[in-house]
Recover the amino acids of this structure.
């Protein structure tokens, strides 16, 4: 392995306030509750800033602002004007991309290489993409009743709750289509990663977005609950755990609120014996170790055809031994920090369960920094379908390896999960790719690639991975009255 | 002396599960009366076990039906329309009894049900075009989104419109490749069982449509809570029952079609009943030499 000198990205492009309020009606306001929490850098445990846990009254204020902005401004604005605001936002994100990438890596722990090369370009692209839809909705094929070409109507106020794994990217997935369709939003970022959403509030101000169109309320589960339950909310969009998704689905029962849920996954990444193994190894690594495995569509179950198991695992372990774990701001870093102590506990306890249930654990021999939350790239062999590590979402850099003999067995095992978000297939045989893609019950199938995302490409799950799609023309449906 | 009149041979109305016509395993039945209150027949009162058997049958039928070509599914829906047309008089009589409408009106409702099936038959190989897309991603990748059926759908049929309403909720679910368990109108279940006889003779594989008669308030919660059901259409549920069912459905994140108030079953339905039970699958592949 080559030795690399440290190559840290500079922090001085980022200006973090010591303390943040809530962003309501275009202004920074103090929470009416007063409960303050700290957000830390998970790579160093250093405190980055203080922020509020919004209470019900704060949420009510934000929803009221969003309703007023919807009624008086945003729903009346011609689509072409909404489009220009979104283009403006996309441009400001591009202008401030470096700053936002560093801020994301600081608050989340992900390597700067990923926040700079994946998250931020996709954030800007998402706003750019949906900006273009804002004045073309009548061509999207969702016109209702009045025949072709009717202008579809927005829903109203959207309550949006996003996770900590791709904080700004998930914000973009939520806010861009909502605004393009003419809705106003109240968005709650995750309690461990509020900073880029708060920076986005400033971007809205720079873009002169009318007050109340975007409102950001920070907080944890209780804030989210107040937002989902608010009677004047017309739409709930949530990305996060299946457990919380269930709660939301129950909460909205009996209301007219429209819901989209993007929940957990336990994706199978299936490697056939004729696959280009070196490429497959890269795909497996990208599938489960990208973003420390904090990815709902991560390829967390490797299904390898028995005849190439040894060869593939040897190559995989060799590759994992070259991954560099450490300072997220170092441009050479492959594996950053686990986002929080709580998440690290969860990864540890599920990994321990893997060993207790009889699977064999192997971890890459990498040094672990003294401070912060870290978990080395790990794989388990000898995993049975009944093991917890084969069934439950670990949401960490942990790969469970299972084997199969026939394509039918691979499909059977891949689909043997309550989840159905994504799947991967590695083979050189075209007809087999299409056959597998057809049989796999998952919303995204990556063939000879993995973890690719694009604003034009619909994303979302089958079964308990949720419902609704984000991205592409399909993503508009979630924010239109259709 | 008058010649004694011929005594009619009555039909026993049973359930329709997996292509067979069993009685309820519970042995229960309930009396069905006409709109005037006259006794018509004893219909089976399906139990939880019947509902579970029906879900098993629907699950078993799903791979074959969802894997059939769209052309084939379209032809089978058209075949159902043909069989229904052939029994027009029988359905008209049952609808007239159930709804207390004139013979002429009842005939029109049967005609509308036939036409509805023909309308949906034509959608089988077209809805995918509306719902699919080739996506221009920013990179060297083939990227295609296509529609796929959600799976097993539990349907609570509307109490009114015992034939037209029923056909209007079944056809959109199955034309796209889903299989279903349907709770027929509790008030007027007889046309549903006669429809099952039509389905059974239309080349529709057994288990694609399973029909239960009985109490919606008893059956709908079991189906909504069943972990092997992927979606529920609560069209026929009164408000309170619909809320309870939607809550139960959250347990495994079923797709839920909420009741939409009063529906005009004679109006052109739109595509929403089909799209409610379609998933979108997106496939990526690199482009290279």
């Amino acid at each position: 392995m080559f030795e690399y000198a440290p190559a840290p990205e500079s922090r001085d492009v980022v200006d973090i306030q010591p303390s943040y309020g809530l962003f309501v009606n275009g202004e920074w306001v103090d929470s009416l509750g007063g409960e303050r929490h700290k957000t830390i850098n998970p790579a160093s445990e250093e405190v980055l800033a203080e922020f509020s846990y919004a209470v019900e009254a704060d949420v009510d204020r934000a929803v009221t602002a969003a309703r007023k902005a919807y009624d008086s401004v945003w729903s009346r604005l011609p689509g072409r004007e909404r489009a220009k605001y979104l283009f403006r936002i996309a441009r400001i994100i591009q202008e401030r991309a470096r700053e936002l990438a560093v801020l994301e890596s600081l608050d989340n722990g992900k390597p700067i290489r990923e926040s700079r090369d994946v998250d931020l370009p996709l954030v800007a692209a998402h706003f750019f993409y949906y900006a273009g839809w804002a004045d073309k909705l009548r061509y999207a094929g969702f016109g209702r009743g009045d025949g072709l070409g009717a202008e579809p109507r927005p829903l109203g106020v959207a309550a949006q709750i996003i996770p900590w794994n791709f904080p700004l990217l998930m914000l973009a997935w939520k806010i861009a289509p909502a605004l393009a369709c003419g809705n106003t939003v109240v968005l709650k970022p995750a309690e461990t990663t509020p900073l880029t959403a708060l920076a986005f509030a400033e971007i809205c101000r720079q873009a002169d977005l009318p007050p109340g169109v975007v409102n950001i309320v920070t907080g944890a589960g209780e804030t989210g609950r107040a937002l989902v339950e608010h009677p004047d909310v017309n739409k709930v969009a949530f990305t996060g755990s299946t457990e919380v998704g269930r709660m939301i689905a129950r909460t909205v029962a009996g209301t007219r609120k429209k819901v989209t849920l993007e929940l957990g996954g336990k994706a199978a990444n299936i490697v056939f014996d004729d696959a280009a193994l070196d490429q497959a190894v890269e795909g497996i690594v990208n599938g489960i170790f990208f973003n420390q495995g904090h990815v709902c569509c991560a390829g967390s179950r490797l299904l390898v055809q028995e005849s190439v198991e040894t060869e593939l695992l040897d190559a995989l372990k060799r590759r994992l031994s070259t991954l560099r774990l450490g300072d997220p701001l170092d441009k050479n870093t492959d594996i950053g920090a686990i986002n929080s102590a709580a998440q690290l506990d969860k990864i540890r306890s599920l990994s321990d369960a893997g060993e207790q249930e009889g699977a064999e654990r192997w971890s890459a021999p990498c040094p672990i920094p003294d401070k912060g939350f870290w978990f080395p790239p790990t794989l388990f062999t000898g995993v049975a379908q009944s093991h917890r590590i084969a069934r439950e979402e670990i949401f960490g850099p942990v790969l469970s390896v299972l084997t199969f003999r026939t394509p039918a067995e691979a499909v059977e095992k891949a689909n043997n999960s309550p989840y159905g978000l994504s799947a991967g297939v590695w083979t050189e045989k075209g007809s087999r790719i299409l056959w597998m893609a057809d049989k796999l019950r998952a919303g995204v199938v990556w063939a000879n690639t993995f973890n690719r995302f694009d604003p034009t490409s619909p994303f979302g799950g089958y079964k308990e991975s949720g419902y609704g799609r984000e991205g592409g023309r399909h993503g508009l449906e979630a924010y239109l009255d259709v | 002396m008058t010649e004694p009149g011929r005594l009619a041979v009555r039909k026993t109305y049973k359930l329709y599960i997996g292509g067979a016509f069993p009685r309820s395993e519970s042995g229960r039945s309930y009396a069905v009366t006409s709109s005037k209150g006259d006794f018509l027949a004893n219909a089976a009162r399906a139990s939880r076990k019947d509902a579970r058997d029906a879900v098993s049958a629907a699950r078993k039928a799903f791979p074959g039906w969802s894997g059939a070509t769209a052309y084939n599914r379209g032809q089978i829906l058209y075949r159902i329309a043909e069989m229904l047309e052939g029994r027009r008089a029988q359905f008209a009589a049952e609808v007239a009894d159930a709804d207390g409408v004139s013979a002429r009106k009842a005939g029109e409702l049967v005609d509308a049900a036939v036409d509805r099936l023909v309308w949906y038959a034509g959608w089988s190989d077209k809805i995918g075009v509306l719902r699919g897309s080739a996506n221009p991603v920013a990179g060297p990748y083939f990227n295609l989104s296509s529609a796929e059926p959600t799976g097993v759908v539990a349907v609570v049929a509307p109490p009114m419109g015992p034939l037209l309403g029923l056909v209007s909720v079944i056809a959109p679910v199955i034309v796209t490749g889903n299989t279903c368990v349907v709770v027929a109108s509790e008030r007027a279940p007889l046309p549903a069982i006669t429809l099952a006889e039509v389905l059974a003779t239309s080349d529709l594989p057994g288990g694609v449509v399973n029909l239960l008669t009985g109490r919606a308030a008893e059956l709908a919660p079991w189906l909504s809570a069943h972990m092997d059901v992927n979606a529920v259409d609560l069209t026929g549920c009164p408000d309170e029952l619909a809320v309870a069912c939607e809550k139960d459905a959250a347990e495994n994140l079923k797709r839920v079609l909420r009741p939409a108030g009063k529906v005009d079953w004679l109006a052109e339905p739109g595509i929403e009943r089909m799209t409610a039970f379609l998933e979108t699958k997106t496939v990526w592949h690199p482009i290279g030499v």
